[in-house]
Design a protein that fits this description.
The complex is a heterodimer of chains A (316) and B (500). Chain A has 316 residues and is mostly helical. Chain A has a domain of 185 residues: MetI-like fold. Chain A is 77% helix and 0% strand. By secondary structure, chain B is of the alpha+beta class. In chain B, the strands form four sheets. In chain B, strands 1, 8, 9, 10, 11, 12, 13, 14, 15, 16, 17 and 18 form a twelve-stranded mixed beta sheet that branches. Chain B has a four-stranded antiparallel beta sheet with strand order 4-5-7-6, covered by helices on one side. In chain B, strands 2-3 form a two-stranded antiparallel sheet. Chain B is globular and about 70 Å long. In chain B, 52% of the residues are buried. The chains are: A mainly alpha (316), B alpha+beta (500). At the A-B interface, helix 2, helix 3, helix 7 and helix 11 of A face helix 6 and helix 12 of B.
Chain lengths: 316, 500
């Protein structure tokens, strides 16, 4: 992989983010309703709405607002001020970021812990009873809406069994056990769903490799089955699996929004929803931009990881 | 004041048959349904904000559980005979939670900020008529009015928009997240969307109160999860519980369901500007066509009292005027008289922000279909709903008014021609005159007949079609003591304690 390639990719990434920033900035204020009206509620007099919009800086032309917003981000890493709480958004984002990252990573881990074994056992004996079992389970996991899955898990593990708290977040600094007890249900909600989706991809990726000539050759050479699976099959299927994991980030990001609301999880998804409902434009723009950054960076990392997984691949 | 509160508490304890003495300390974990929309009392309009502020800021005067005016930061007040000035004698030795001594000057600064158009407050109307606020000495405040405002004392007592805070927060912007008050608790942590932590105000002026060390307010938006959190003991107290869960929770002995008739009503607001709905007969037809019992059953699962006029039976101003029985036949006659024998098409606009309005709209839609009115439902989220209502882009909407005390609150701003909350476009010169006259009169006996006439006219002409008075419902663990649901929907933890 050459440096020029890396720079080119980074340049494209910045271009994409610039486009995203432009589009979100232009689209979000088109939502009907305004932050001034939400704040004032049913008591909104036209004068009060006008005064608040002036205080919020919404009376300025859109291009002027955009330049001051993007300028703040580039020069000072300043995402502006929330129109509702009037607090700096950067602080809000920094406070929420660890919660969302925790949730996403644990969810991904749970998802992989489901997908790889499930895909593996069903791919080894396609058409068998256990393959059918995995198919049925993964179909179920894909079909259950995330909010409903969350509530079912709360009813079972929190209300009926009393093992885990029903909602809330504790940082890792509070200790591993309180942290783990709080993260388990929301992460399992997302993890079960994304695991079910990934299990199918893992299965087909493994099946494809299992049908390759070199696998048959390896068997014919008398290489032990275990070694064939580990060295030839899993390693070659890894590329497809990493691609799926990268693509799953999009599903993960959107599922996290819903799950954060249900479990009162103080992350970025919750910030995005609250900002949407309250028409807190700068907070929403920050959330969208961050999601875009996450997604594009994960995509880049996925592409770059191919060169490590498969030495034949190189980017020039 | 201390005596009144102690007495009320003692009475409360006696009634529940508890002999235990109040114990201090502990943290009450409370769940709110919606997150505060900023905490600047002058700017916000959200109940979720005011119910935090209720425990942090004091008003000059306040309401006791029976809705009587009682002292708070002012220990005495006098209204001039002509109603053109009100004088408050302030309590001495009161400090804000930051240690600053509270004086009359703070009251002047706070009220002047509220009335300043540059503040952009939607609450300035509550002090209508006030032209100046003066502090002749450190413990006296005089409000001067250019016209009497009979609801002024009610607003000063019931609305946290008129509560007193240390104005220093308005200068540095901290008022939006941590307003500093003289109340029993102070905000020590505010994480928008997640948590508000209230800690005991060390300078609170009532000896021995509050009992709790802290109130940890979590925002749990999903009603099923809020219910689960209460049942599992993750939270001690829940702000509003889903009406469909009331019966089930009532039957449990690990949860206490507390309810009070609320000074609130749900209604259909009708756009009287044009089309079939501009005809009074059509609006009356709708009032006859709807089955309020079914609406209350569907919208609130029966936790409501159906009504045809706004002021609830718990108020001395209740009139109980009910000219509309459920009468689809009469509705069809009225429609035929108005030239709509074949019905017409219209829209109902509920908001997903208040789920009860959606359930109500569905019943209303079915009832209207039975008399030939083809209603469609357009459910909007709150921000869009407010915009459409404000712009008059609707045929009918379903919403509620909350926390109303004086009859002037129930009618003036909503129905007087061109007033701020007159979103229906209703205009009746006779009603306008009566409203203007009634708010000038000081005596209950003189005002009542005027409001009775106003009430009758508005119910008959139906710019608002009244549906029901809801109950204020809270649910909490049985060891949460000294809390009671109130008619004014205030949530006060000052006398709350934990028996554990």
């Amino acid at each position: 992989m050459s440096l020029a390639y890396l720079l080119r990719r980074l340049g494209t990434l910045l271009l994409v983010l610039f486009g995203v920033s432009l589009v979100t900035f232009a689209i979000i204020p088109l939502l009907p309703g305004s932050p001034a009206r939400v704040t004032l509620g049913v008591q909104a007099t036209p004068e009060a709405v006008a005064t608040l919009e002036r205080q919020m800086g919404l009376d300025r032309p859109l291009p002027v607002q955009y330049v001051s917003w993007i300028g703040g981000i580039i020069t000072r890493g300043d995402f502006g001020t929330s129109l509702i709480s009037r607090q700096p958004i950067r602080g809000e984002v920094t406070r929420r970021l660890p919660a969302t990252i925790t949730l996403a990573l644990v969810a991904l881990a749970i998802g992989l812990a489901i997908a790889i074994p499930a895909g593996y056992v069903s791919a080894l004996k396609p058409g068998s009873a256990r393959d059918l079992g995995v198919s049925v389970m993964s179909q179920l996991g894909v079909s259950v809406p995330d909010f409903w899955m969350g509530i079912l898990l709360i009813l079972l593990f929190s209300e009926t069994l009393g093992w885990l708290p029903s909602s809330g977040y504790r940082p890792l600094s509070d200790g591993f056990v309180p942290w783990g007890r709080h993260v388990l249900l929301p992460a399992a909600t997302v993890g079960i769903i994304s695991g079910s989706i990934m299990a199918r991809f893992v299965r087909s990726a493994l099946l494809e490799v299992l049908g390759q000539d070199y696998v048959r050759t390896a068997h014919a050479k008398g290489v032990p089955r275990r070694t064939v699976l580990r060295k030839h099959v899993m390693r070659n299927a890894a590329i497809s699996i990493v691609t799926i994991v990268g693509l799953q980030m999009a599903t993960l990001l959107s599922a996290v929004v819903v799950v954060e609301i249900i479990f009162a999880w103080p992350g970025l998804g919750q910030l995005a929803l609250t900002a949407t409902l309250q028409r807190d434009y700068p907070a929403l723009q920050a959330a969208v931009l961050l999601a875009a950054v996450t997604f594009t960076v994960v995509n880049l990392l996925t592409d770059l990881s191919y060169t490590f997984l498969d030495p034949r691949i190189s980017y020039a | 004041m201390t005596r009144i509160r102690t007495l009320a508490l003692a009475l409360g304890l006696a009634l529940t048959g508890l002999a235990a003495a109040q114990t201090s300390g502990g943290t009450l974990v409370a769940a709110w349904e919606q997150e505060p929309v900023g905490l600047d009392p002058h700017i916000t309009s959200a109940r979720s904000s005011y119910q935090v502020l209720e425990n942090v800021l004091d008003t000059l005067i306040t309401l006791d559980a029976e809705q009587n005016l009682v002292p708070s930061l002012a220990h005495a007040w006098t209204v001039a005979d002509d109603g053109l000035s009100v004088t408050f004698e302030l309590r001495e030795g009161v400090r804000f939670s930051n240690g600053t001594e509270f004086t009359s000057q703070h009251v002047v600064t706070v009220f002047e900020r509220l009335l300043d158009p540059e503040t952009g407050s939607g609450n300035a109307w509550r002090m209508a008529g006030v032209t100046s606020i003066d502090a002749p000495d450190a413990t006296t405040v005089v409000l001067t009015l250019d016209a009497p405002n009979p609801s002024l004392l009610g607003h000063l007592a019931s609305s946290n928009a008129l509560a007193i805070f240390d104005p220093v927060g308005a200068l540095d912007g901290s008022i939006n997240t941590r307003p500093i008050g003289t109340g029993p608790f102070m905000i020590s942590d505010y994480q928008p969307g997640t948590r508000v932590l209230l800690e005991r105000n060390p300078h609170y002026w009532e000896d021995g109160l509050p009992y709790l060390d802290a109130v940890d307010i979590r925002i749990i938006g999903d009603e099923t999860v809020r219910r689960s959190a209460l049942v599992t003991g993750d939270i001690d107290w829940a702000f509003s519980i889903p009406p469909q869960a009331v019966e089930e929770l009532d039957a449990r002995d690990d949860v206490l369901v507390d309810r009070a008739a609320a000074g609130a009503y749900y209604y259909i607001g009708v756009n009287t500007a044009e089309g079939p709905l501009a005809d009074e007969r059509v609006r009356r037809a709708i009032a006859f066509a709807i089955n309020r019992d079914n609406i209350a059953a569907a919208a609130e699962f029966g936790n409501a009292q159906v009504t045809q006029d706004p002021i609830p039976p718990s108020s001395a101003w209740n009139f109980g005027y009910a000219p509309y029985g459920y009468d689809p036949e009469r509705a069809r006659e009225l429609l035929a008289e108005a030239g709509f024998a074949d019905g017409f098409e219209m829209e109902i606009m509920p908001t997903s922000f208040i789920e009860a309005t959606i359930r109500a709209a569905q019943v209303i839609q079915a009832d209207l279909a039975a008399v030939g009115i083809r209603a469609s439902i357009r459910t909007l989220e709150w921000a869009e709903w407010l915009q459409e209502q404000g712009d008059g882009n609707y045929d009918t909407f379903v919403c509620s008014w909350n926390g109303l005390i004086d009859p002037d609150d129930f009618f003036y701003a909503q129905h007087r021609t061109g007033e701020v909350f007159n979103f229906t476009g209703y205009s009746n010169p006779t009603v306008d005159e009566l409203l203007d006259e009634a708010r000038m009169l000081p005596e209950f006996d003189a005002r009542r007949p005027l409001y009775e006439q106003i009430n009758r006219t508005i119910v008959d002409e139906a710019p608002y079609i009244y549906l029901y008075n809801p109950l204020e419902i809270h649910a909490y663990a049985p060891d949460v003591m000294g809390f009671a649901a109130r008619a004014d929907q205030a949530v006060r933890f000052v006398t709350t304690w934990l028996d554990r």
